[in-house]
Amino acid sequence: MKCGVTIEMDKPRSLRYGMNALIKIEELTGKNLAKLDLDNISIKDLRTIVYAGLFHEDKDLTPEKCADLIDEYSSITTVAEKLGEAMTLAFGGKPGNPQAVEAVKK
After folding, report:
1. What is the domain count for the chain?
2. How far apart are CA 86 and CA 53, in angstroms?
3. Is the confidence at residue 34, as pLDDT, over 90?
């Protein structure tokens, strides 16, 4: 099981990107994961990626509820940082190693 990154929202939640989450991202964005530029994504895609990373622990979560959680309890900047950490872990990187995310995008 992939490790997650804790993000404080209405409660501590685990942002995690296993195979199902990665597939969900592709299905909902209509984009190949390798084509997503995490440094240059739309707000809609950011919401989708965060939603996909949280869905494993809350099957009642929707993208809209996810956006509400971000608005209410966090910020886009914080969420983007946590997303980067979680993606690094998903692709075998070590926490705090942003180069791992860069290697995935190439």
Report:
1. 1
2. 8
3. no
